[in-house]
Design a protein that fits this description.
By secondary structure, the chain is of the alpha/beta class. It has helices at about 15-25, 55-65, 80-85, 90-95, 105-110, 110-120, 135-140, 170-185, 245-260, 290-295, 300-310; strands spanning about 5, 30, 45-50, 70-75, 95-100, 150-155, 165, 200-205, 210-215, 220-235, 235-245, 265-275, 275-285, 325, 345-350.
Length: about 350
């Protein structure tokens, strides 16, 4: 039985749309708040939906899923994971499996301080966290911490709002600036319920950075971990990477996946430093680094389709070739032409309310 898929907040993620179209036995739909989103042009059918922070967002997704027999919903943004987790039963009621973890897992991963506490209990290395400049400066004075330091939103995503401080003066200035921006509501969509402790200060880690795709099945059972070494970063995204085989990092992924019990993929960022591994981020969704695994032989979209259909995935879909190096490339897509050219034939309308 074919599985229809809906990819939310498609944006520029044309590669993921193509990967699902090649892998699943069904139609691949995509939606976005903007009809000009390039990835919509790759889908079998596309929809303009309200923004994630709109009260009608979940209703619009449910309407698409019910009307087009969507069996699998794939979210793209951290900001929608909590909403989808809370409304999981509503999607299941229309026959759609949302690829989202439990509200508790989403909460742990969304809050970087809770992420750190979870990992420390697991015995996994993490950067030390400070909630204000004073204790951070005291740690520097004791020789427990050293500049440069990173200041970032506690509930941030990617590199949004991240600042670096080379000394005490820059630390105070950067911290004050970010507090002003948070109070102004610049990143209100990122959530957070503790405005007085909305920033984290950490030592800037030095060493090799890796991205882990920690794969669990739809019941939260760990399956495998794909490992990539990041060669270059740009705007918080992995711009170039190479796949590697590393038993220690694969074991680290297994420990995290089994303890967290997330659903599907967990995007994990980790540094190999002189002191050992240090995990800096967990995101319970298909991460922007997954395409590097896919190009090296993985096929997570096919595995998802099999699980939804109650079929055992091919073990080959969980194997990657080491040493495959890849990088992002610019691609230009026509997103709008005069209507007489019929360029928007795949853009579908939600039914009238």
């Amino acid at each position: 039985m074919p599985v229809n898929v809906l990819l939310t907040c498609a944006g520029r993620r044309s590669y993921i749309v193509k990967a699902f179209k090649e892998a699943v036995k069904g139609r691949v739909f995509a939606c976005d708040a903007s009809g000009d989103a390039p990835a919509l042009r790759e889908a079998d059918g596309a929809f303009i939906t309200p923004r994630v922070d709109d009260a009608d967002y979940i209703g619009a997704l449910l309407e698409i899923c019910g009307k087009h027999s969507v069996g699998l919903l794939i979210p793209a943004l951290e900001t929608e994971l909590g909403l989808l987790a809370e409304n999981r039963e509503r999607f299941l009621a229309v026959g759609t499996t949302p690829l989202v973890s439990s509200p508790e897992v989403v909460r742990i991963c969304h809050d970087k301080l809770e992420t750190s506490r979870f990992l420390k209990k697991l015995g996994v290395g993490v950067p030390c966290n400070y909630l204000s400049p004073e204790p951070a400066q005291e740690a520097v004075s004791r020789g427990e911490l050293r500049f440069p330091l990173v200041i970032k939103p506690r509930w941030g995503v990617s590199s949004i709002g991240m600042e670096f401080a080379a000394d005490k003066e820059e630390l105070a200035l950067a911290f004050s600036l970010l507090k002003i921006r948070i109070a102004r509501g610049e990143w209100s969509a990122l959530g957070g319920d503790d405005p007085e402790h909305s920033l984290l200060i950490q030592e800037r880690l030095r060493g090799e950075e890796y991205g882990l795709d920690i794969i669990n099945d739809l019941t939260g059972r760990h399956v495998c971990t794909f490992v990539k070494r990041k060669l270059r970063m740009h705007a918080g995204q992995t711009d170039r990477a190479v796949t590697v085989k590393d038993e220690n990092l694969e074991e680290l992924g297994r420990r995290i996946g089994e303890a967290l019990g997330h659903t599907g993929m967990l995007d994990c960022d980790v540094f190999r430093t002189e002191a050992g591994f240090s995990v800096i981020d967990l995101n319970p969704r298909i991460g922007g680094g997954y395409p590097y695994s896919h190009m090296a032989g993985a096929n997570f979209p096919a595995a998802l389709s099999a699980w939804v259909r109650g079929v055992e995935p091919d073990p080959a879909w969980f194997e990657i070739e080491a040493g495959v190096e890849a990088g992002r490339a610019d691609l230009f897509v026509v997103t709008r032409r005069p209507a007489k050219f019929g360029a928007n034939e795949n853009l579908m309308k939600l039914s009238e309310k």
